[in-house]
Amino acid sequence: MGLFLLNKRRLKHAFSSFILSCVVMSCANTQSYAISVEKRYILQNVNIVDVVTGDVKKAHQVYVEDGIIQQISASNIQKPRVQIIDAKGGFLLPGLIDMHVHAYDKSAFELALSHGVTHVRIMNGIPNHLHWKQQQKEGSWLASSLTVSTPIVHSRIEPPLSWTANNGEEARRLVQKAKALGYDLIKAYGSMDKASLSAMIDEANALNIPIAKHGPHPPTGLSWEALANMQSLEHVEDIYQGILGHSHDETLIPSAIEKVSQVGVPITPTLNIFWQLTKISEFKNAFVDSLPAGYISPFIAFYQKQNQVKRWLNSQDEMVAYNIKTLSFLKKITNQLALSNVPLLVGSDAGVLLSPHGLATINEMMLLQSAGLSNIEVIRAATINAANALALDSKLGVIDEGLQADFILLEDNPLQDLTTLNNVIAVSKEGKWLGKEQLLALRENARNNHNVFSEMWTLFSN
């Protein structure tokens, strides 16, 4: 967010009155959007993908009421005055969970839901995200549900939309602040020093709030064992850059994987974002112009095109070759993590480098497949593994009686053809059934109705 770094305070004071007035006018001219959804229904003739066993329960029925899967049966379910939905032999999969996204515009989470992503973990949270999460609990906003991290916590540097802990006492106070404000987890950046991160871990354990760390390795002087209670460790790119010191030597991968695997914490590879920068560097504006319109808010898109995207547009042939080689190497690291039984999570880094919400999640899954993971391993990374990491496995991640009715309907068997994720037929979000037409309506409304001034105010006021 370098856009706000140079003149943050001056910009905030200069534009706050202007933006606030524009927000008022924008909200006054924006109609609330709602779609009619079924909330009590029996889904008939459906094949259920069991992500635990990797099997398919053929020709079943699923009864949903009050947002919960009430009954699953291979026989007819009889209920009075209940909507009957014929799945026509489609395949039912738990809703996808994206464990690494960035967004400051509500439409991002509507877009994600329209592509079958029923839950996301926001990795640089602000108070607005907590407010939006509350709106979902109250039933006033239909979108992917949210797990919200704190603002990114650094040491020594103070970028906007972030927190800074320069010593153990400051780190402890930030953990207490996070707990008091209602954040779901703390996002610790790679810049955190030993003293600050160690104190943060101690306080977080005491207050029972998890930490996700940027970079799957400890800072200098801190043991690997200190990372054992993390919710997740982010980015295989940081295994390459940090543990392996930017070396492409494949013989060094096993020793790095051994260190990571001993910690026993899930890894979020985020291959998608390195794939995105590689494509921008290689194909320049032709790739940027091919990205679907409306998936990134205009304000963030403008900023990124002037900064992060511009950097990769200016890549020379040598950098393009390096990016292509490194992406291939990151896939090899990911493959070795899977072979070593390190739990993997789907995280797209959507919202960064114009990476489109919802679509980026599916692309991350395809990249995991191209890294050598089986279809069921990829699916588990986006469902049960993520639910386990979030401690939401009593609600999400599998399709079973008594669990939340978050699932997606696909035309073909994803265990055999993962590309069927590109054509989601229907989504159930907390029991609210959205068919194909409703998903398209939700998507188009989100793409065409970004509230630019509201997002500007959200960013500047934070």
From TrEMBL:
GO molecular function: hydrolase activity, acting on carbon-nitrogen (but not peptide) bonds
Gene3D superfamilies: Amidohydrolase, Urease, subunit C, domain 1
UniProt domain Amidohydrolase-related: residue ranges: 91-433
InterPro entries, per database record: Amidohydro-rel, Metal-dep_hydrolase_composite, Metal_Hydrolase, Metallo-dep_Hydrolase
Pfam families per the UniProt record, alphabetical: Amidohydro_1 (PF01979)
Annotated PANTHER family: ALPHA-D-RIBOSE 1-METHYLPHOSPHONATE 5-TRIPHOSPHATE DIPHOSPHATASE
Protein name: Amidohydrolase
Organism for this UniProt entry: Agaribacter marinus
